[in-house]
């Protein structure tokens, strides 16, 4: 690997493929553990150029570099319990976009999330948790009472909803992110992680992440380049098959 200055960021679709491929290796038990040796460490002592910004739940089972088979310098990682947004989170994500031009921002939720479960319990009982945990729960509540949820929704349905809403809120609240999404330079995606089998399931994307069938070399893929201008007002949504009926707009 050459100097960091020689590196060019991949397109959003290429970045997603790298994350998806790494997760597939992790699922199959054939992780390569890339970029974790002393030469990589030495190279990065002069700077960083992460290709992904991953904003996930702080759950100890959700270590981004492990579940996407990444190494040092690959991902700029931001975590809070229940992937709750606050100003420091938005600033951190904006920093990744401004400073490193990271082409993909992933919101990462997971099944059986304790923070989302606490928000569901608070919604059902009216009892709020103590201390600053209340602050977390309050910010998750809109996702657990969303009209788009099915009756008697499972907590995992709520996590999917919360992951989508969080991804949309980042784009809505940050001009830096929304401008980058509008230009096609950045995709904001939502991923639901399955704790038992390790699989990362795409539940939201601000744009089509399909790579073209024919190689196009460096730069943006045709799919990315042909994004509609209206993406800022109404991002294109990619659902998992089981979520094709759900409305992403219920708040
Ligand atoms: Zn969690």
TrEMBL record:
Q: Does the keyword Metal-binding apply?
A: yes
State if Lyase is listed as a keyword. Answer: yes
Please give the InterPro entries that the UniProt record associates with this protein.
Answer: Carbonic_anhydrase, Carbonic_anhydrase_sf
Which UniProt keywords are given for this protein, alphabetically ordered?
A: Lyase, Metal-binding, Zinc
**Cofactor: how bound:** Binds 1 zinc ion per subunit.
Q: Which SMART domains match?
A: Pro_CA (SM00947)
Q: In which domain of life is the source organism classified?
A: Bacteria
Q: Please tell me which top-level EC class this enzyme sits in.
A: lyase
Give the EC number(s) listed in the UniProt record. Answer: 4.2.1.1
Q: Required cofactors, per record?
A: Zn(2+)
Q: Which GO terms describe its molecular function?
A: carbonate dehydratase activity; zinc ion binding
- The record lists Zn(2+) as bound by 57, 59, 110, 113
Question: To which protein family does this belong?
Answer: Belongs to the beta-class carbonic anhydrase family.
Q: What does this protein do?
A: Catalyzes the reversible hydration of carbon dioxide to form bicarbonate.
Record-given protein name? Carbonate dehydratase
């Amino acid at each position: 690997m050459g100097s960091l200055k020689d590196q060019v960021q991949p397109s959003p679709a290429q970045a997603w493929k790298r994350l998806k491929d790494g997760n597939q290796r992790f699922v199959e038990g054939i992780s390569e553990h890339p970029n974790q040796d002393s030469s990589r460490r030495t190279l990065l002592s002069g700077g960083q150029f992460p290709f992904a910004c991953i904003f996930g739940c702080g759950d100890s089972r959700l270590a981004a570099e492990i579940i996407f088979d990444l190494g040092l310098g690959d991902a700029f990682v931001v975590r809070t319990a229940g992937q709750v947004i606050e100003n420091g989170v938005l600033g951190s994500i904006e920093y990744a976009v401004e400073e490193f031009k990271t082409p993909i921002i992933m919101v990462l939720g997971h099944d059986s999330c304790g923070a989302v479960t606490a928000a569901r319990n608070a919604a059902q009982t009216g009892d709020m948790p103590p201390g600053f945990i209340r602050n977390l729960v309050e910010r998750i509540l809109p996702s657990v009472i969303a009209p788009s949820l099915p009756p008697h929704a499972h907590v995992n349905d709520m996590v999917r909803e919360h992951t989508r809403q969080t991804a949309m809120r980042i784009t809505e609240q940050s001009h830096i992110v929304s401008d980058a999404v509008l230009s096609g330079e950045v995709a904001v995606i939502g991923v639901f992680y399955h704790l038992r089998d390790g699989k990362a399931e795409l539940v939201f994307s601000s744009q089509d992440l399909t790579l073209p069938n024919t190689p196009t070399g460096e730069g943006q893929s045709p799919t990315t380049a042909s994004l509609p201008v209206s993406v800022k007002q109404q991002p294109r949504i990619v659902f998992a098959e089981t979520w094709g009926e759900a409305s992403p707009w219920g708040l």
